[in-house]
Amino acid sequence: MSASEKEQIFIGSFIHTNDRGQLIIVDHGAIHVKEGKICNIVINPKSNDINGENVTVLKNSEFLIPGFIDCHIHAVQFPNLGVGYDKKLLEWLDTYTFPLEKTYTDKKFAKRVFNVVVDQTLMQGTTTACYFASLYSEASVILGQVVVSKGQRALIGKLSMDAIRDDNYFESIETSVKNIKKFVEDIEVLNSPLIKPIITPRFALSCSMALMKELGKLAEEKSLHIQTHISENIDEIKAVKEKFPEYSSYAAVYDEARLITNKTVLAHGIYLTDAEIALIKKRAASVIHCPSSNTCLKSGLCDVQKLKKEGIKIGLGTDVSGGPSCSILDAMRSALDVSSHLSMIKDNYEALNYEDVFYLATLGGAAALAMDNQVGNFEIGKEFDALVVDTNASPGLLNDLQNNTLEERFQKFIYSGDDRNIVQVYVNGRKIK
Q: Which of the listed residues 253, 358, 376, 410 has the most CB atoms within 10 Å of its CB?
């Protein structure tokens, strides 16, 4: 019997949320894991109740939380972290992003970058990532291979773009359709339960309606996830209206192509109209909040509370490299900042709190990716994706200089911790860090 098949038992404190976003704090419990899945949870276990050789007892300064879920990250843009934030979205894309993305015809470069991407995101506690990969199929498959080798959970999307550009950074519609079908097959051939292909039209400005309809058809035929961008920037929205004047809204363009489904994740959504929000809710699609990117590229302040009130599923994204960090912790803090700023300029506005953003980074993100039946919190039958957090890890910013409660130590981690406090990372029961 291999180590992964033996029952593992984790004894100590753990914190997660329920599907209403309420914090569940357990001071002393035992989580039993077998074949990667949680098979039992015991609150206040007695010492003689714990049997088996694979027992991990957490230190007093440690606690378990579910793994972080990054619902929107561009793996190919990682080399541009921290570059170009003097521009706004469309100029930033042309000046920095597209020239970098064109270099992924170099497979050695692609492999080198993607190894760093997956290592860094795992180090930061990202157990599940929804990746935008490359326009180029071979590079996109390399990302899949790297993810499999390192044991992360991921959705991986080959970009689809057929809008003609002077720099030739596009594919013809015939080539695009052929390549995306081959990419889906190549990801499936990797035969990993942890990764899936995701249909990825870059955004409406990069795609013809004919291509988007082909992508919607493929997603429907194979029951695939879909990811794209929506309503990130005022100039972008105007350009979409000029390109597709016959449709009532940005969301209506995607809906015409059958790209808004219960497995669709729409990044940004800052300027969604009430009609668009109603459409997204009707289709049971999700909006991914990317607060760091929205700030760096001066796109706007997304009103997450309004989306929540309307019943929209919401996840968090780092949006590397629109955002300057691949850490979901940083994205959580940025979401708190944006919400606090909105509360200062809007009357009777209640800002998000640390519980809210923790939910978005875990179970909320899982729901946004239509994966909440698998991961996102600690429930029997779900896969064990988890982080061991040590608020007394050294070196680190946090400390146990006073007798903080477990919830206070959790708050400290949310507001002031970093990757040094994430001392172990598990995906599907396997220790990755």
A: 376
**C-alpha Rg value of the chain to the nearest Å:** 21
Q: In sequence order, what are the residues at sequence separation of 6 or more whose Cβ sits closer than 8 angstroms to the Cβ of residue 62?
A: 12, 13, 388, 389, 390, 391, 423
Strands 422-427 and 430-431: antiparallel
For residue 185, is pLDDT > 50? Answer: yes
Query: Is-contact 417 389, C-beta < 8 A?
Result: yes
- Among 57, 40, 42, 87, which Cα is nearest to 298's? 87
**What is the reported pLDDT for 49?**
63
Please list, in sequence order, all residues whose beta carbon lies within 8 angstroms of the beta carbon of residue 49, skipping any fewer than 6 positions away: 30, 42
Burial class (CB in 10 A: 0-12, 13-18, 19+), 346: middle
Supply φ then ψ for residue 356, to 5 degrees.
-60, -50
Other beta carbons within 10 Å of 166: 6
Amino acid of residue 78 = F
Distance CA 135, CA 104 (A): 8
**Quick check: bond before 249 cis, omega within 30?**
no
Angstrom distance (rounded) from CA 170 to CA 135: 8
Q: Is the pLDDT at 1 greater than 70, yes or no?
A: no
Q: What is the pLDDT of residues 256-313, one digit of tens each?
A: 999 999 999 999 999 999 999 999 999 999 999 999 999 999 999 999 999 999 999 9
Cβ neighbours of 297 (radius 10 Å)? 24
Give pLDDT tens digits for 371-426.
Answer: 999 999 999 999 999 999 999 987 766 777 788 999 999 999 999 999 999 999 99
